[in-house]
Amino acid sequence: MNRERPTDEELLAYMKSPTFRRRSARMQKVVSDKWSRGEQVSFDEIADGLKLPLDVVVGGFAHSMSKTFGVELVPVGRVQ
């Protein structure tokens, strides 16, 4: 997103949209295909593909890993 950072409300609305669901499904396939070829995908690539700020993608990954492994992460505020 090439403008000021979207508000949390704007991000939430976008992440509930059909457009985001399509991009998410496409990125899951890209990540899976690259992984099967032994290639890595960066958080930057994922953020660009999903049209989300990088910190949202990294935060989502950290949240998923903490739930998966049962490890509590220290919450970090948004960088202004």
From TrEMBL:
It comes from the Bacteria. This is Uncharacterized protein.
